[in-house]
Amino acid sequence: MSVCSILGHNPEKVEYLDLQLNGDTEKYVDPNMIEYLADRSKGDLQVLSKQANTQIYSFFNQIIKILKSDENEQKKRIEMNNLFSFFQEPQHLNLGISLEGNTGKGTTAKELVKIFMREDVVSLILDESGLTIPQKTPLFPYFADDKLSDLTSNIIMNVIIEFNKKIVVLYPEMSSYLSSVNEEYNYYSNGTWKQMRHKPFIFSEKKVLFIPKDFATYKQTSSLSLLMRTILVEAIEKDKIKNNREKRKTKKEFEKENIAGNRTENTRKIYDESTEVSYKYYQKEVINKVKERLTKD
User: Fold this and answer.
1) I need a surface site. Which of 133, 174, 220, 251 has the fewest CB within 10 A?
2) What letter does residue 15 receive in the DSSP assignment?
3) What is the pTM of this model?
C-alpha cells in the first residue's frame, strides 16, 4: 500500500515521492540531483534545491576545514564527532531498504566519524581532483548509498519540512493526515546545527515526511561502476603507451587484470594515478546520469 493509493493521487503527477507503507521505498536522496536542480529547475523546486545545495556544500566544506586544520588527531576526531552527532535522529522519511531489527535511527555519528577519519578517506577528501565529496563517496569503504542519503537528508531537514508545508497547501486533503504532535528535527545551516518543530503526517500508523520526487533516485548517481568506467579510458591508454602495445586492451580485459577482487581498493589505485581529464569526464558523466534519472524517474 502506498500513500498515493490512499489519497487517490497519481504517483506520476504529484511533486512528492510516493512512499510504500507496508514495504520498502527503495529510493535514496541524491546530493548530485539536488546540485543539478539548484541551477536548472524552476519555481518552488529551484528555491528548495538552492537552499538545500547551499547547506550541503556548507557541511562538506566544514569537513574539509576540520581535516585541513593544524589540530591534533584527537581534537579533529572530537570536532568531527560533534559535526556528525545529530545523525542519530529518526527522520520519518521511510527511504532505502530496511533491515531486521532496525530502530529507525539510521546512520550513527560513531560510524560516520570512523569512516571519515580513515587515513585513506582523508587523503581522498583533501586531494586536488576538483570532485565534490559526494562524487568521491563511491571510493569510501563501508559507505553505501543509504549513508550518503541519510547524511544529505539530515543536513537539509528544514528544506524537507518546508516542502511538506507546501504540499499541504497544494493538496488540502492531506491536512487530515497531519499528526497532532510536533516532532523535533535537526538541520545544518550557516555552520551550525539548528532545531525546528513540525507535525509529520501519519499514514497507517506510520509517521511520514515527504521529499521532492526529483531529490531521490533508486541508486546514487555517483557510483563505483560509473567512476571506474570513466577513469579506465585514460588508464587503458597509459597501459598501451607504457607497454608499447599495438592495440589497447579492452575494458573487460583491463578490469579482469586490474580491478577484480577488491573493486573499491583497486579502483582507488587507478583513480590516484588519473589526471584532471578523467576527473572532468567523470563529473560530466555524473551530470548525464542525473539527467537520465530525472527523465526516467
Assistant:
1) 251
2) S
3) 0.92
